[in-house]
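[step 3/7] inverse_fold.run input=structure_tokens len=205
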């Protein structure tokens, strides 16, 4: 198989598997929010649902569109021919980035309402859960290739969020301007979150 075709297909598969694991975990948080036996666990579920809603929406739709575009390229010029159906997949995937609030608006919601409004309490709660997972699995040689990058990107999320938070205290427009930094935070959080969900599934497989 051509190397670039292999790259496109394996990338699409990786995002599909990570997105599925991410979606299952968010659904578990929805159940926790409604059905956990004690208030503390119900609150944790509610906090994670609030934090993850803009992330899961942006992560799946951004990467779904990119994967559809890459897979259309697998067909070469024939990818644009209507009979193959790929061009319609790309069109359909693109509108998902606009539905239910554009992904740029999701990024603003994430930073402005879900992170900064409670001074990062939800984000710290999630970070604590990820840190515990890293500590529990850091010495497992089978998980090393997954846990090390997860720890690295976790540090980057914390640093970027703190930087934006400090700037927003002086000027609230810093959260949305320049837009690319806010979107970058959303993308980084998405990668960390989906990676954590996927690695949890690997550790229990």
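[step 3/7] decode complete -> sequence:
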């Amino acid at each position: 198989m051509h190397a670039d075709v292999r790259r496109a297909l394996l990338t699409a598969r990786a995002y599909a598997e990570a997105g599925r694991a991410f979606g299952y975990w968010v659904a578990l948080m929805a159940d926790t929010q409604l059905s956990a036996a004690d208030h503390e666990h119900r609150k944790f579920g509610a906090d994670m649902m609030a934090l993850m809603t803009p992330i899961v929406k942006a992560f799946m739709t951004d990467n779904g569109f990119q994967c559809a575009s890459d897979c259309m390229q697998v067909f070469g010029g024939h990818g644009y021919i209507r009979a193959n159906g790929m061009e319609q997949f790309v069109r359909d995937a693109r509108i998902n980035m606009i539905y239910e609030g554009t992904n740029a608006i999701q990024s603003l919601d994430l930073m402005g309402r879900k992170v900064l409004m409670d001074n990062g309490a939800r984000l710290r709660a999630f970070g604590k859960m990820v840190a515990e997972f890293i500590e529990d699995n850091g010495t497992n040689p089978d998980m090393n290739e997954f846990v090390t990058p997860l720890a690295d990107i976790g540090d980057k999320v914390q640093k970027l969020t703190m930087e934006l938070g400090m700037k927003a205290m002086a000027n609230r427009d810093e959260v949305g301007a320049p837009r690319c930094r806010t979107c970058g935070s959303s993308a980084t959080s998405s990668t960390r979150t989906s990676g954590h969900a996927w690695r949890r599934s690997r550790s229990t497989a």
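[step 4/7] annotate
The two ends are 29 Å apart (CA to CA).
Confidence is low (pLDDT under 50) at residues 178-188.
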